[in-house]
Design brief:
Two copies of one chain form a homodimer.
Chain A: H1 13-22, E1 32-34, E2 41-45, E3 48-58, H2 70-86, E4 91-101, H3 107-123, E5 127-135, E6 141-150, E7 166-170, H4 175-190, H5 204-211, H6 217-225, E8 232-235, H7 240-251, E9 254-258, H8 266-274, H9 279-285, E10 292-296, H10 301-305, E11 310-317, E12 323-326, E13 332-334
Parallel strand pairs in A: 4-5, 9-12
Antiparallel strand pairs in A: 1-2, 2-3, 3-6, 4-6, 7-10, 7-11, 8-10, 9-11, 12-13
Helix pairs in contact in A: 2-3, 4-5, 4-8
Amino acid sequence: MTETKRTEIATLGEFGLIDHLTEGIELVNASTRRGVGDDAAVLDMAGKATLVTTDLLLEGIHFDLTYTPLKHLGYKAAMVNFSDIYAMNGTPRQITVSLGISKRFSIEDIDALYAGIRIACEDHKVDIVGGDTTSSMTGLTISITCIGDAEPADIVYRSGAHETDLICVSGDLGAAYMGLQLLEREKAALRGNDDVQPDFAGREYILQRQLRPEARRDVIEQLRQAGVKPTAMIDISDGLSSELMHICKQSGVGCRVFEEHIPIDYQTAVMAEELNMNLTTCALNGGEDYELLFTVPIGDHEKIAQMEGVRMIGHICRPELGMALITRDGNEMELKAQGWNHLG
Amino acid sequence: MTETKRTEIATLGEFGLIDHLTEGIELVNASTRRGVGDDAAVLDMAGKATLVTTDLLLEGIHFDLTYTPLKHLGYKAAMVNFSDIYAMNGTPRQITVSLGISKRFSIEDIDALYAGIRIACEDHKVDIVGGDTTSSMTGLTISITCIGDAEPADIVYRSGAHETDLICVSGDLGAAYMGLQLLEREKAALRGNDDVQPDFAGREYILQRQLRPEARRDVIEQLRQAGVKPTAMIDISDGLSSELMHICKQSGVGCRVFEEHIPIDYQTAVMAEELNMNLTTCALNGGEDYELLFTVPIGDHEKIAQMEGVRMIGHICRPELGMALITRDGNEMELKAQGWNHLG
């Protein structure tokens, strides 16, 4: 018997595994404009672009039901998919919802989960058009696919950033990660002590950012109203560094980001201090912000400056210069994409 | 503290749960033509119809890796989605593939799985356009969404069957279920005995039907060439009885199916005999056949009679007459949809 070769998946990591699996895939259908490699696939349907994105959420990996209400989980599961469609500068229209449910869950539980999905859909005018429901041996599995549309000329890929473009980000960063740290700390503290309720006063914002993120349709609308079309765009699910890396890699450019310009909320800063964590590291690598990261031509500087909730944090440069953070004290530090590595 | 109500999901069953969750969903997008309730959703993209279907496969529920080669599993996971698109009389064009992978699996394992998916895609000219890859705490999770297209006028729903229509089925039934029974028997017999290899000689067909099902594009093509448009159509994943029930319920009709006309392969019959199982029950409720079940106007009788691999097994009747099987000895038995109930 010959021995079968066994290579651990951790040697590739998530992005490496995806590259490996999708290497050499040839697209044969005329309607397939863009496949793997952006926030969503792009299909050409009679001249109109259809966008497709999908997310798989597994209990114990992506969520912990000890502190995540099922209604919030449903809301978030839908929202992260809408966020991918907005990140293509498109409009989400339909989702399919597949659920794997273990016996631990009652109909009331699944109703709560579904109620959250439906609220998210109502807020963003998205239709639930199908799905699959099955039992699971262990825990809860949620797989959502979202379909959106866009005028072909409006679509923004990750690959369009040019030298001198401004790097912009919506909202603030690191709060969802701090919310997660807080929830994990309280979970550990309360173990075996069901009667005590944690006190979250003054920390509502970071909890909300973790449990009930909002996809930034409002930012997309602001950009349209201002007549700004980003050259590249991505949503921040794995952390600013990781997403910047995607844009720079796919656009063939480098970047400079200024630490002092990275938007961070007060509650995020307080929590990082309390946990003795480096605030900038949290903002760069925390993940789950679901904010939009995009680049615009430098000529749009004035328009961006007038927008509420959008910050310019740096600029795109030549690829030879690499990706770097300019710290508050003026030093240059190479940006590394740590992000979330679920396969690590 | 008020007690939370807990209703077991088993009280509703899979179809009941889906009905319950999707009750009262209102579709708000002009592009959504048909949502939950058929083999695929139907979207209207600039006058052309887009079809969307999705399947969630979980280890321990839908497949057993003790006897399922990963390459075959990948092939089957893609194929069952194509089958849903063909069942709408459409053409599959794109899929997204999401994988949840536990540490038990190596890159070589996932390569094998993906190789199977890619072979299925090449055979049916389908593009892999995206997906999601994550680690899992337990086992393997596969979630595939398939996008297809069709001319709006060509789409066949489950709801179009009329009184006097002929009920037709492609291929033969019950073989995949017998293949599963054989594999389960050999697994039990070989437990703790790794040196012995099972002898599957003369049973290749039922194994192939279980491990490597084929979506019936050829049947769709035959129907088109013959100029036959079915009035209703569904693919047989949960068993003939269950699928007939969907067509009858959604079309508001009854049916009569003749036991003697149900197509069954010789190997299926031999295996049922050996296992002392009722052959007709296996053919009616076995599931995983991935054949097409459809109805045609009685005027198409001659055309169907000339088709290879398609059998007329009964006819549609008034709803008051219910769903019944006419046995070989001329008795009428009410048809009940046992099917697979993964949530039972």
